[in-house]
Amino acid sequence: MPLELVNRSDGHVIALPEGACLTIGRVPQCEIHVQDQSVSRRHCTVEAAGSEVIVTDLQSANGTFVNERAIESAKLQPGDMLRVGTALFECRLAGAPEAPGDRAVLGGDDSTIETVIRKRIEPTQLEWLEAPEVPSRELELLRRAQRHLTTLHHVAEQLAGAHEVRALCDLVLRAVLDVTGADRGALLLRRGDDDHGVELVASHAQKGDAAFTVSRTLVADVFSKGISTFAHDAVTDRRFREGQSVVMQHVRSVMCVPLRTSGEILGALYVDSLSGPGRFSEADLELLAAVGNQAGIALHRVRLLGELERLFLDTIRAIAATIDAKDGYTHRHSERVAAFARRIAAEIGLAEDRQEAVEWAALLHDLGKIAVPDSILNSRDRLSPDEYEAMKQHPAHGARILANIQSRPVAEFLPGVRSHHEKWDGTGYPDGLNGEAIPLLGRLIGVADFLDALTSSRSYRAAVSMDEAVKMVEEGAGTHFDPNIVRAVLALHERGEI
Questions:
Q1: Is 291 in contact with 171 (CB distance < 8 Å)?
Q2: Taking the chain, what is the end-to-end CA distance rounded to the nearest angstrom?
Q3: 3-7/21-25 β-pairing
Q4: How many CB atoms lie within 10 A of CB 10?
Q5: How far apart are CA 221 and CA 225, in angstroms?
């Protein structure tokens, strides 16, 4: 027996003769017309094939549902409920009487649900803005809302990955200039609690000289009151008559909004136009204020990350100083090794973040000496074989101690701490690694450690000159040291940089 659909809202019956394929959608051209903005223009199809009815979603924005399960394609059985937007259709046998009263709808057999929708909805691509039945005035408002949404979405994505203040400020400013059509813009940060303590961090002009003056009075007003400022025509606005930077530069339309977190104003975002009054609207001011809020939160996050990184570095330096203080003959040894190692890392072309990892590993390379008895560390005599074996364990001790810190930066430089006494020919310790099996950080620190040890005085020998130390490093190329790193040391020494 053939099936049919019944619209639950008005009781309208939709026949489904054999072979029929009907489209449900928002545009009048669809066989089943649903006037609902949440329904796509062509939302889904309903096809009668023998005793079955097959529903197929047409990549709709909000999905097609059978028994409240999102589907790509599904077979309808008598009693199943099809929902498209807010419209609800019941599938039943053709001619069957409707049961009196309301009834609960149980979910159908899961085997009829072939695929669940997995569709990425892009906030910048909204199909309903193309609807021809929307009045032109409303459509323009919707399109402007889409442009603003697109800007906020773009800025939010950019800010999420920003890790440096000036780069963050520059990308915010360029996005704002692009969407508002302003001629010039600037981003200023507050210094201290004084409303006049301001630093210009980023500025940009769409054409001509990028250097221009921002009204200090205007910015101070935004800082002190925490409100957004908008002038349709700055020349005739009494608030700007005394502002020489506005008058002398022939500024006409102006907007300035605060960069804020929940409890603090961090800065201000300023844009202006020189091409006549009426360039900006209150809607533009609302957009700028929304961007300012986003930027303020991102700026606060970047500053917190910077403070955490400084705390991390200060902690590492404090630990390094503790190690050097424990070993009476190696005062500031870790700092000098770190300086040598970073220069070598830069010479062989490592990226900035890898250079930092080298420096941190070098600062902590002797951490394991904490576990070595003071009598061995400060011995004035040659170490006995047992004492030397105990000393040789300090790289492993250091790596084991640091492994307790669950941190990505620590995990990156940990191999350098453990392997800084390995040798290119495999005769080093603690693991007897050789060649490129030795982590690069360990190879770098090993050379830097050797240089500083030779050029520092010990109780049992005097320091040698840097020329002699570099000569000894050169002689150890291919046996103790990585030949590529040795070449970098020779190049630095020849230029007087080590």
A1: no
A2: 92
A3: unpaired
A4: 7
A5: 6
The Cβ of residue 442 has, within 10 Å, a number of other Cβ atoms equal to 24
Burial 115-148 (b: 16+ CB within 10 A, else e): eeeeeeeeeeebebeeeeebeeeeeeeeeeebeb
Residue 217's alpha-carbon distances to 22, 245, 254, 422, in angstroms, are 65, 9, 13, 63
Rounding to the nearest 10 degrees, give the CA dihedral for residues 365, 371, 373, 377. 0
Specify the amino acid at residue 44: C
Residue by residue, what is the 3-state secondary structure of 313-359?
HHHHHHHHHHHHHHCCCCCCHHHHHHHHHHHHHHHCCCCHHHHHHHH
Q: The whole model's pTM is what?
A: 0.51
Q: 3-state class of 49 per DSSP?
A: strand
Which range among 82-91, 95-104, 290-299 shows the weakest confidence by mean pLDDT? 95-104
β-strand partners of 5: 14, 91
Q: Which run of H or E residues covers position 446?
A: helix 440-454
**364 near 472, Cβ under 8 Å?**
no
- Burial class, 68, CB count within 10 angstroms (exposed 0-12 / middle 13-18 / buried 19+): exposed
| Residue keyed to tokens 């990028």 | 210
Phi, psi of 394 (to 5 degrees): -65, -30
Runs of H (alpha helix) within 259-332: 282-326
Helix (H) or strand (E) holding 185: strand 184-190
Q: For the packed helices 408-418 and 440-454, what is the interaxial angle rounded to 10 degrees?
A: 60
Which positions ≥6 away from 298 have C-beta within 8 Å?
A: 159, 160, 162, 168
In angstroms, the CA 86 to CA 451 distance is: 76
What is the 3-state composition of the chain as percent helix, strand, coil, each rounded to the nearest 5?
Answer: 45, 20, 40
Question: In 10 A of CB 12, how many CB atoms?
Answer: 11
Nearest CA-CA partner of 191 in 180, 205, 201: 201
pLDDT tens profile 321-369: 777 777 655 568 888 999 999 999 999 999 988 998 999 899 889 888 8
Residue of 463, 464, 466, 461 lying closest to 497 (CA atoms): 466
pLDDT in tens, 236-287: 555 555 555 554 455 667 788 888 887 788 888 888 887 766 677 777 788 8
Dihedral sign for Cα atoms in the order 480, 426, 446, 442: positive
Alpha-carbon 311 to chain mean position? 21
Q: In terms of DSSP H, where are the helices of 161-281?
A: 165-180, 216-225, 244-248
Q: CA dihedral in degrees (333, 337, 340, 345; nearest 10)?
A: -170
